[in-house]
Write a structure and sequence with these properties.
There is one protein chain. With 92 residues, the protein is α+β, with helices and mostly antiparallel strands. The chain has one domain. Helix content is 28%, strand content 23%. The chain has 2 helices and 4 strands. The strands form 2 sheets. It has a two-stranded parallel ribbon with strand order 1-2. Strands 3-4 form a two-stranded antiparallel sheet. Helix 2 links the parallel strand 1 and strand 2. The radius of gyration is 14 Å and the shape is globular.
């Protein structure tokens, strides 16, 4: 099973080579979270890895990954593959 087809991966790589100040990658499934069981890219580890490898390969700058679910809001900052900080709003 896959989230993106080959033509979508090619398009994403082509766009990653173009100059841009900011790049938004929006997904209905969590991208940074690598756990399995809910709606995370952790259920598709090969695709999550492929995305991060593509970012490194193309040296694309200004990337903002917008994703998540309505049940677990959080803001995560990823620095070259390492989770640096997580901000989770308090419920209630």
């Amino acid at each position: 099973m896959t989230l993106l087809g080959e033509s979508q991966w090619r398009w994403l790589e082509e766009q990653s080579h173009k100059p841009a100040e900011i790049r938004l990658d929006c997904s209905g499934t969590q991208i940074v979270n690598d756990t399995k069981g809910m709606q995370e890219r952790g259920n598709f580890p090969h695709e999550r890895t492929k995305l991060f490898e593509l970012i490194q390969k193309t040296d694309a700058q200004g990337i903002v990954l917008l994703s998540g679910t309505f049940t677990t809001p959080k803001c995560q900052k990823l620095m070259r593959g390492r989770n640096r900080s997580t901000i989770s709003p308090r419920a209630g």
